[in-house]
Structure formats: structure tokens, C-alpha cells
Design brief:
This is Aldehyde dehydrogenase family protein. Keywords: Oxidoreductase. The protein is α/β, with parallel strands linked by helices. It has one domain: Aldehyde Dehydrogenase, Chain A, domain 1, CATH 3.40.605.10. The chain is about 45% helix and about 20% strand. It contains ten helices and ten strands. The strands form three sheets. The chain has a five-stranded parallel β-sheet with strand order 7-6-5-8-9, sandwiched between helices.
Length: about 280
């Protein structure tokens, strides 16, 4: 019997629940820390970013309109599928980051646990971020958090999976949709995560993953009028003040580069607060 050929994995973009190549046709080589070739990744373009925003905007109504309990169940399902593909993610992280198998396993386990932690906040964060406000008079005054809409994210650049999960998961909890620029050096796990999302119950367009140069793509997302918020967690090496200025022109909420800490405050950062007054019934 002749020896069969291997079937190399093709890493594309993830936009609107589909996996297209970059409209520009460009790719770039992803290599190991020792310089060994791992894969060709799609080099995302301005047009790809615009397509991703369109997909994210079209998904806002359905995702934000789901009940908090339902969003929690959907996100928990993602963790289940991640657990089933644990070995694949470990292999990818070993190849991309040059870690030992045990260190890569620890990163994958931490990413899965973090995803479960955020899934659990879906039906709880409103009790923390919202409030029943004391007022003088026969009224109820209630503050309720609502999603801000489309969140553009520059993922941490030094991590293949954990950094990505740490910024994507909290944005999803409140009902936002996401366009995320993956780590340029370690993009493979980001596309594998997008495959997990596509085979879970996450609607198409809720998470859109772009690979390529954050320096090239981020300015277009920062200035895009249909993006509501900007997370610059992985933009520390960019001219990120210029990105803040571009975002300010369209009144975006912005999180500056810095350490990403798991916290309900990261969920609340991408919410708007709606205050409702209602008269008390007079008997």
C-alpha cells in the first residue's frame, strides 16, 4: 500500500460564520520560535475588516435579544467543545509558542476554565452592574445594563489562546458582538477557536476573527462608524494613542492597552446603562 499524503490544515479568516480567504488574496507565513514553517495564515485587509463589522452588526439583534440564561448556556457549550478539542489546541500552542506540552496544557485548561467563568456571569452581571436606585417620591427607579453593540478588539499578541479568550469572552457576556484581530505571531489557535464557535450554538457573525497585521487593520476598526467600542488590550506596540483619537471621533468606548484581569468590570466596560422610572401603584 502506498503511503498516503497528509492533509495540511488551511487557516482562513472567520467572518459571519463562514471561513473565507482574505479578499486581497494575501497570506503570510506563521513560523515556530525556531523559524520552522507552520502554516500560511490569511493577511486580513481593510475590506475584510469592513465585512467583519457588517457581519457583527447583523448579529447584534439576535445575540443581545437572547435571554441571559440562554447566552450562558451557549457559552458553556463552547467550553464543552473546547474541552473535546483540547489536544489539538495543546499541539498548536506547543508549535506556535515553543512551550512544553505541560505548559501548553496549563494554558488551554486555564482558557477553558476562564470561558466557563465568564459563561456563569451571563445571568448574574446585571445584578452587579445594575441597581434599584433610592428616590424621593412614589416611584421605582431601576438602572439596567445593556450591550453597547459591536466591539472591536486587538487581542494580546504574546498568547495564542488564553489572551484571546480573556478579551473575547467578557465582551460576549452582555450581548455584544465582536470583531477581533488575533495575535499576528500566534494566529492559528484563534482560527481553531472560531471553528469551535461555528460548531457550537454561537450564531454566525457574533465572533469574527481577522488574522494579519494589527497595525494595518486596527486603524480602520478604530475609525469605523459602525463599531461601538474598542479594546486595545494587545495594541501596546502600536501607535495606540492615535487609535484612541480615531475612536473618539465616533464616540467609542475604549480600553487602553494593559494587563487583562478577569473581572465583572471588564463585562461592564462594554455596556450602556438604561435608567427606567415607573410609578408605584397607589392603593
Amino acid at each position: 500500500m502506498s503511503k498516503r499524503l497528509t492533509v495540511p490544515k488551511t487557516y482562513k479568516l472567520a467572518i459571519g460564520g463562514a471561513f473565507p480567504r482574505s479578499e486581497s488574496g494575501r497570506t503570510y507565513e506563521v513560523v515556530s520560535p525556531k523559524g520552522a514553517f507552520l502554516a500560511n495564515a490569511a493577511q486580513g485587509s481593510r475590506k475584510d475588516a469592513r465585512d467583519a463589522v457588517v457581519a457583527a452588526r447583523s448579529a447584534v439583534k439576535g445575540w443581545s435579544g437572547a435571554t441571559a440564561y440562554n447566552r450562558g448556556q451557549v457559552l458553556y457549550r463552547v467550553a464543552e467543545v473546547l474541552e473535546g478539542r483540547r489536544a489539538q489546541f495543546i499541539d498548536e500552542i506547543v508549535a506556535q509558542e515553543g512551550l512544553s506540552a505541560s505548559a501548553a496544557a496549563s494554558q488551554v485548561d486555564e482558557a477553558i476554565d476562564l470561558w466557563v467563568w465568564y459563561a456563569g456571569w451571563c445571568d448574574k452581571y446585571a445584578q452587579v452592574a445594575g441597581n434599584a436606585n433610592p428616590v424621593a417620591g412614589p416611584y421605582f427607579n431601576i438602572t439596567v445594563p445593556e450591550p453597547t453593540g459591536v466591539v472591536a478588539i486587538v487581542a494580546p499578541q504574546d498568547s495564542a489562546l488564553l489572551g484571546l479568550v480573556s478579551v473575547v469572552a467578557p465582551a460576549l457576556v452582555a450581548g455584544n458582538t465582536v470583531v477581533v484581530i488575533a495575535s499576528e505571531r500566534h494566529p492559528l489557535s484563534a482560527i481553531s477557536l472560531a471553528e469551535v464557535l461555528a460548531t457550537s450554538d454561537v450564531p454566525g457573525g457574533v465572533v469574527n476573527v481577522l488574522t494579519g497585521s494589527p497595525a494595518e487593520i486596527a486603524p480602520w476598526l478604530a475609525s469605523h462608524q459602525d463599531v461601538n467600542a474598542l479594546d486595545l488590550a494587545g495594541a501596546g506596540a502600536l501607535e495606540w494613542v492615535d487609535l484612541q483619537i480615531a475612536a473618539a471621533e465616533t464616540l467609542k468606548r475604549v480600553i487602553a492597552p494593559g494587563e487583562v484581569v478577569a473581572s465583572p468590570e471588564r463585562i461592564a466596560a462594554f455596556t450602556e446603562v438604561k435608567t427606567v422610572w415607573h410609578t408605584k401603584s397607589m392603593i
